[in-house]
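[09:14] KT: can someone run the structure on this one? pasting the chain below
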Amino acid sequence: MDFKKLIIIGAGGHGRVVQDVALSMGKWDEILFLDEGVKENGFDMKIIGKPEDAFSYIKEADVFVAIGDNNKRKKMVLDLLKKGASVPALIHRSAVLGKDVTAERGSVIMAGVAVNCNSVIGKGAIINTGVTLDHDNIIGDFSHISPGATLAGTVKIGEGSWIGTGSSLINNIEITEGCIIGAGSVVIRDIKEPGTYVGVPAKKIK
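[09:31] RB: done, structure tokens below
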């Protein structure tokens, strides 16, 4: 169904940027928020309830989960999909997408992103501002590629991993699920064990 209303779950900083993405698409006549403990703050926001109220809107609006925490976002997105909610992918109009790029439901591609051909963005993934993904990348469900990160060709990111701001991954790298790659790190080999990796080259610290 082609809804003209969008409900965003999460009214913090990430939610406001998601609103910018949605506004750039020009698809919705009304954008509303659900949050708990966040006040309307002059960003043309209207908070109409708490996150758990989302299920009462699924017959009248698209619903998007703007929660930064990968695990919390996963739970909410999966619950919404199970209930039959319309959970769109959001793609900023300034993003450049190559041929045969797929963005799954609940994912967001922010301003200034470049995604080259044959790449797949998984469900509920965040491709943040200014990220570069080269050809044949596979970004796992509910992962987060932070602002300014650069992924060369044929990189695979496991579900729920977090790639830090300004980090770089060479081509043909695979990172397993549940990893954190620290800001500014350089990954030059596969990461097969969950954990936190930092440095140049990136090494496990915990």
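[09:33] KT: thanks! Helices lie at 13-25, 70-82.
[09:34] RB: yep, looked fine to me
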